[in-house]
Amino acid sequence: MNKSTVFLAPAKINRFLHIVGQRPDGYHLLETVFQMIDLCDEISIELRDDGVITRQAGLDTVPEDQDLMIRAAKLLQSHTQTALGCNLSIKKMIPMGAGLGGGSSDAATVLIALNQLWRTNLNREKLADLGLQLGADVPFFIFGKNAFAQGIGEKLQEIKLEKSCFLLIYPQVHIATSEIFSDRNLTRNHPKVTISDLFERAHLPEFGNNDCEKVAVQRHPEVARAIEWLKTKAPNTYPKMSGSGSTVFAQMAPELANQLLAQLPDQWIGFVCWSVEQHPAYNTVL
Fold first, then answer.
1. Which position among 12, 126, 145, 240 bears the catalytic label?
2. Report field, pTM of the whole predicted structure over 0.90
3. Is 137 marked active-site?
4. Residue 196 class from Cβ within 10 Å (0-12 exposed, 13-18 middle, 19+ buried)?
5. Does CATH number 3.30.230.10 belong to domain 1-286?
6. In the annotation, is 65 catalytic?
């Protein structure tokens, strides 16, 4: 069992992110539209027949026992009682602490991939239930379609979005989700969107806002500078922050996106990305 298989783990952006309440256990209730993009981590999986799960290559800054890929593999192994194991390697392209869901996508992709390779044959709903134990965004990537999300992010409804090009700016600021959601100034009572308004207007760049953005720009001025840079260089594109930050994005024509990418200040990292309709491994799940 020494042949490696490569799977892609796509990033996401939040077209908007409204915090509409908070549960007694402290988890925040939200409404958002998740849209997958073609910025992907590459995960290589080599099967083992001795039950051992290990990381061969990855991020040195993340201890192996805290790595969401390892935790996902061990969770699936424990749940299904399979005797198989695996060697995991990752080529990271999605920045960490960037609001792009990289860690959650990696975990989801490992669950999807090993469910196929180990022939454990769990359906999508069961995989999503397992994924929720790893993080609130993991079920979205297992759902595998662009979605309107409610609850803590696990209540998902497919939404059709036009194919779009985005310029993403990662200002090289790492923001922990807990930092933003624990801030006393975070809006927690945003009015809920109406379903009719959502499905008619969610594709528009100006629809909604990100309630985490106000806190993030107060704590991290570089995020504010990236937003203002985009507003100046690409008027009427309504740039927003994704997730709890720090990446900001704007929808625009690919020609403009590539022009601005070439003009990006040296301290920032930029990506020109296209939306995708579904997870690259969507069809491997029952």
1. 12
2. yes
3. yes
4. exposed
5. yes
6. no
